[in-house]
Specification:
With 386 residues, this protein is an alpha/beta fold. It is built from 15 helices and 12 strands. Strands 2-8-7-6-5-3-4 form a 7-stranded mixed sheet, sandwiched between helices. Strands 9-12-11 form a 3-stranded antiparallel sheet. Helix 6 links the parallel strand 3 and strand 4. It starts with a helix and ends with a helix.
Length: 386
């Protein structure tokens, strides 16, 4: 049997590799604390679960879903963009249901990238921005992200020969893994750049609802002209503790939405309609759970920052958003050597920054989705190994 080259060309999926190492330790009876993956540890709010319980008993929901999303779900998405961001998107032509943002990101490559075409990818970013390109024979240009540029991906330094073959650019602020946030000026420059080089911007807004100290994230589509060049991805995963449910949406530029919808209709058959009904409840029902969640993560952020400061690990940015702390590795270590030392000696998993792209070298990502007592125990263990 011979598998395709694209499989051999993929790096091991970051979290699959971490999971494998953890299982090896656990098989030896060792208690491993994972601060690796960003997966909310608190449950989906009750009112959303209740909506699902009702929706699953509706026989109409038992048939194939709509490829593009139920009209009522797309209307809820459009309404949410209006009430949350004051952004107008037409529910019919400018929104599309996704089986999680990850699915949308991966399929965008099929819709936009031919073999040899470039995608501009944040120097440290969600791994699928890169692996999605590998899957279709596309090329990746890593946009540098540094402490000096506030971890705002530097698209201006992209060489002309790359730009000549570039189709798509991913941006994501609030940012995973660095926790950086962007300002209007950066978004406006990105829009002008995309217009000049005929690129689709995909703004991945997975963390729009997670903010601290009063920070409220914007939508990329709030910027003038954004809809001419961009789509935005919003996910129920992090905002409503719904990672397991697999529901998100894309919105914005109608041409891009249509292209992605065409790919999807040939590959998947949409989001289970009962899950869409639950997501409608998430988007249109009470929003109190978000403030509660942010209170929880803010407390954990402070706990981690305080502990890291005590043990002399530097954090370049105090996070005002996301569920991550981006920490510098001690001098003389690489991301991978530090992460593996922490796992070997402290039995704590942190994510090596280099796994997110070349700009991630020299950092590790600590996720705040672990209960407080375990988080404290993990930091204590790290302290004892240093
Ligand atoms: C978690 C995450 C996603 C994936 O979200 P799903 O909707 O669960 O697929 C996408 N992008 C970023 C940046 C993320 O951190």
């Amino acid at each position: 049997m011979r598998t395709a080259n694209r499989i051999a060309n993929l790096p091991p999926y970051l979290f699959a590799e971490i999971d494998r190492k953890r299982e090896l330790k656990r098989a030896q009876g060792i208690d491993v604390i994972s601060l690796g993956i960003g997966d909310p540890d608190t449950p989906t709010p009750d009112h959303i679960v209740d909506a699902m319980a009702t929706a699953i008993r509706n026989p109409a929901n038992h048939q194939y879903p709509s490829y593009v999303g139920a009209p009522r779900y797309r209307q809820a998405c459009s309404q949410w963009m209006k009430t949350r961001f004051d952004v107008d998107v037409d529910s019919n032509t400018e929104t599309l249901a996704l089986i999680g943002s990850k699915e949308g990101i991966a399929h965008l490559f099929t819709a936009f990238v031919d073999p040899g075409d470039y995608t501009l990818v944040p120097g440290a970013g969600y791994p699928v921005y890169y692996t999605g390109g590998v899957m279709v024979g596309g090329e990746t240009w890593w946009m540098p992200m540094t402490e000096e540029n506030g971890f705002l991906a530097d698209f201006d330094s992209t060489p002309p020969e790359v730009l000549a073959k570039a189709k798509m650019m991913f941006l994501s602020y609030p940012n995973n893994p660095t926790s950086a946030v962007a300002n209007d000026e950066y978004f406006d420059r990105a829009i002008a750049f995309a217009r000049e080089h005929d690129l689709l911007i995909v703004h991945d807004n997975a963390y729009s609802e997670i903010g601290f100290d009063g920070y409220v994230a914007p939508s990329f589509l709030q910027r003038p002209g954004a809809k001419d060049v961009a789509i935005e991805l919003f996910s129920c995963s992090k905002a409503y503790n719904m990672t397991g449910w697999r529901v998100a949406f894309a919105c914005g530029n109608a041409t891009a939405i249509k292209a992605l919808g065409t790919v999807k209709s040939n590959i998947d058959s949409g989001v289970f309609t009962a899950v869409q009904d639950a997501a409608i409840e998430a988007l249109t029902g009470p929003q109190d759970s978000i403030a509660e969640l942010n209170g929880l993560y803010q407390r954990r952020r402070d706990l981690v920052l305080e502990a890291l400061e005590k043990i002399g690990i530097e954090v370049p940015l105090k996070p005002v958003a996301t569920i991550y702390v981006w920490a510098k590795v001690p001098a003389g270590e690489t991301s991978a050597s530090f992460a593996s030392r922490i796992l070997e000696e402290a039995n704590v998993i942190v994510a090596a920054g280099s796994a997110y792209g070349p700009s991630g070298e020299g950092y590790v990502r600590i996720s705040l989705t672990t209960p407080d007592d375990r988080l404290e125990m993990a930091i204590e263990r790290i302290k004892n190994t240093l």
